[in-house]
Design goal:
Layout lengths: L1 E9 L3 H19 L2 E6 L4 H7 L5 H9 L2 E6 L16 H9 L4 E8 L18 E8 L9 E8 L8 E7 L5 H17 L3 E6 L5 H13 L7 E6 H10 L6 E4 L1 H14 L7 E5 L5 E5 L16 H13 L4 H16 L2 E2 L11 E2 L2 H11 L1
Parallel strand pairs: 1-2, 1-3, 3-12, 5-10, 8-9, 8-10, 13-14
Antiparallel strand pairs: 4-5, 4-11, 6-7, 11-12
């Protein structure tokens, strides 16, 4: 296959981890006879510095013209003082919306080799852990109306400041919930046929609609067991009894938080990949973690989430299951041999501490 991949290296550790992902993807190409052409484009803080906007129109067009998108990391302290609508993170929301990427898949897999890095008691993860968070990605509070308005003079009289109300509106349509429900039910059907829908239906009207639609879709999947949890309970259950979960489906904000929580159960947020998909097989693939500007350029970052995101791209967009499995197997083998980046390394265990480039090279060599 000859495939064109839009590459967004982004900010902070982004260029470092993307370089290792491309190294691994090239190794896959050499082994399996594929050619990958990389179309590098700007988004995030680096785009602000270069052209004055976090998401240039040319980047969106290049992504639309590519077969898939790889994105490393966006944002950083350097741009924290910018107004909210100009921050680097707006590029993520813009790409998701412009590309129609409404379905976000975030697998949380605890490798046997990393069980000692899991913060949970051993008995809670005996036998392993593998769950999937299906997050709705283009609706909810991240895309609702937002703003600020004045409500008169501050009664406290603090430097003459006027009172201000800030608001972010959470809303979902029936259609938005229904389409992510089908994705989640289909995913559960391919796994253990167990789906947990997470909401806050005891308080939020949008969550009550969410639960109603989930129940309406359920009869189309009689082989899938559907259950519901409130978000606060789900967060607690994830750390006290994680093995009860197989597939979790939830809204944009809850999915963002729960998947990050799940990442720590796997040993490090540096191990979690993700896929953002639209109705067809097109997708954008990125690690769950951020740009980590404090370790950028120091060869300290863990690139495995980015590398495993490449595996998801091969599986979900290109239907190259053997190639995807090869990346996952190579990653597992490198861990079995005791190699660890700093976020996973434990002293006096016989492990070998390696940097970003070396771990990427080792995985590529295994392929």
């Amino acid at each position: 296959m000859n495939l064109t991949i839009a590459v967004i290296k982004g900010d902070g550790i982004g260029p470092e981890i993307m370089g290792e992902a491309q190294r691994v993807l090239d190794a896959v190409g050499a082994r399996f006879g594929h050619t990958f052409t990389y179309n590098e484009v700007l988004a995030g803080g680096c785009a602000i510095d270069a052209v004055g906007t976090c998401l240039p129109a040319g980047t969106v067009e290049a992504c639309k013209e590519s077969d898939a998108v790889l994105l490393a990391a966006i944002g950083g302290w350097k741009w924290d003082t910018l107004p909210g609508d100009q921050r680097p993170e707006q590029a993520l929301l813009g790409l998701r919306k412009e590309l129609g990427l409404f379905s976000n898949l975030r697998p949380a897999i605890l490798f046997e080799e990393l069980k000692d890095a899991c913060p949970l008691k051993p008995e809670l993860i005996a036998g392993g852990l593998e769950l999937m968070v299906v997050r709705e990605l283009t609706g909810g509070i991240y895309f609702g109306d937002r703003g600020r308005r004045s409500v008169g003079e501050d009664k406290e009289g603090t430097e003459g400041r006027k009172g201000v109300v800030a608001y972010d509106i959470e809303q979902y349509s029936d259609a938005e919930v229904r389409r992510i429900a089908h994705v989640a039910f289909d995913m559960a059907r391919k796994r253990e046929s167990k789906l947990t829908s997470v909401d806050k239906a005891n308080v939020l009207e949008s969550s009550r609609l969410w639960r109603e639609v989930m129940e309406e879709v359920a009869p189309s999947y009689p082989d899938v067991e559907l259950s519901h949890l409130y978000i606060d309970n789900a967060a607690m259950q994830l750390v006290c009894a994680p093995q009860q979960f197989d597939v979790i489906v939830t809204n944009n904000m809850f999915g963002d938080i729960l998947s990050d929580e799940a990442s720590m159960i796997t040993g490090s947020i540096g191990m979690l990949p993700s896929a953002s998909l639209r109705e067809d097989s097109f997708g954008m693939y990125e690690p769950v973690h951020g740009s980590a500007p404090d370790i950028a350029g120091k060869d300290l970052a863990n690139p495995m989430a980015m590398i495993l995101s490449v595996a998801m791209m091969l599986r979900y967009t290109f239907s190259l299951e053997e190639e995807a499995t090869a990346i996952e197997a190579a990653t597992k083998t490198v861990l079995e041999k005791g190699y660890r980046t700093g976020d996973l390394y434990q002293r006096d265990t016989g492990q070998t501490l390696v940097g970003t480039a070396e771990i990427g090279c080792l995985i590529a060599q295994e392929i």
